[in-house]
Request: fold
Amino acid sequence: MNESFIPQTAPFHYSGLTVFVINYIVGRLVGKFLKFSYEDSVSLNMTIIARNSPVALAIAVTAFPDQPLIALALVIGPLIELLVLAIVSQMLLFTRKKEFKKRIIN
Reply:
């Protein structure tokens, strides 16, 4: 096993994850700022993440051209996107339940 595998690919993973996290936060803030309903906010958030996923991969390719697994990431990128969208949908459902409980208490 090549022990330098993790350090070589780590910057790519962090940059891709960072873009997804930023997209999620921006989507939530814009939805709250524009006072969207929950449904519209979720639609905005999922659209932002899905539309910006290829951009995140392109940024990673540009930022780390000497990384050997970038081409592989471009191929498996859509699969990663589906996983991220599934996780985000669960996070949004959790926040909906949390916000609903707040409304009941108030």
User: Anything to note?
Assistant: The chain has a mean pLDDT of 76. Helices lie at 5-33, 38-63, 70-105. The chain has three helices and no strands.
